[in-house]
Structure formats: structure tokens, C-alpha cells
Request: fold
Amino acid sequence: MDRSVKKKALSIFIFCFLGLAVGSGYLMRLMDIREDIADLEESITVLTASETIDIGEKITSQILSTARIPRVYLPSRAILANDLELILGRPLIHPVREGDPVQWTDLPEGPRIRYSTEKIPAGYRALALPADEVKTLVHILSPGDRVDVLWIHYSDESPYPSSTILGEGIPVFAVGKWMQPENRRDLDNDYPTSLTLLVDLKLALAISAAKESGQIVLLARGRGIS
Reply:
């Protein structure tokens, strides 16, 4: 192969390489644009007035409905559908037209303070255990995970320890002050000192008594596995 043919082949290779590079860059940019459009098109469910609500009228579920609004058009103070219970029975200081979103600025005091204990279901108790990477697996557990509660203790009849399952599939309520399944890296500067379980009163008494005569160990379950 003479020099001119080699040069021609090299030129073709370079042009093909540049074409692939430009094409790849274009596809990546197109994917970024599509992701931006998807973010803009994401819809949020908010509370709206099913009829015109006058000043001083108290909010009831009968005069409210829900609507999905694209995030890009969502008023910054719109009340989300999940916050319905926070505004029931409260009067309005601004009228809201039928179909318009109800906003926190339409209420005299803005959003009500939410208390952590409001998340404890009826019939349950929150029971805290000391944080420990071995006994309570605080380094891997997140709120919403489920665990089995194991009691390790000694008896007069045997020099060897006994193990008893006190509870199975018990939900983790909180890890330290952390009550949402967020990124665990947020805990780096605030390592938890406790882990809180949701238990019924009978199990709360059993665990509290067992702590005084043995060790409590948690066994983690796979999330979504019964």
C-alpha cells in the first residue's frame, strides 16, 4: 500500500472517529434535554377548591378536590393533597375560586406544626434502643425497615445462653432523629445514638423487661420481604 492510500485511509478513519464523537455528544445532549423536559412535566397532586370558598369559611373535605399540576406551574405555597388533615376546620382569610389551588397563604397561621408522635399508629408505642452496629444494626437500618427482636439470656439450668424471639417483622420507626428514608450520607455529621421501633404495648413490656436480664439483638429482614 503506497503512501497516498495510507493517508487516504487515515483521513477516512479520522473523519469516522470525529463523526462518532459528534454523534455521541449529540445523543448525550438529547438525553439531557429529555430529562429536563421530564422534570418540567412532572406533576404534583395539590388541593383545589371544588367550589368558590369565601373569606371566613371553614375548610371541609366536601369543598375540596385534588388536581395534578406540572411542577413548573406549581405555586410555591400550594397545599399538597397529603396535607389535607392539617387544614380541615380552619377558616380562610382569602377567597379561593373554584378550581384554584388552596395555598398556605390563604390560612391565618400558615402550616400547622407537625409532631413526630403524630406518626405513631393507633395501638402502637415507640420504643427506643441504644444504637449499636452489632446489636441493633444501626449502621444499615433505615426508617421503614423491619426486624426480628431476639432476646439472649442465661438461665439457672444451663451455663449456656438461650435465645428467644420476642417479635418478628417489627417496623423501624426512626434511626436517631431520622424518620424518613433519605440518603444515609446525611447521617455522617450526626451519628444516631438510638434506634426506635414501633411495637404494641405487650411487646414493649416484654422488651423492656428482657433488657434487664439479658441482651436485645435485632435481626434485619430484606426490605419488601415478609
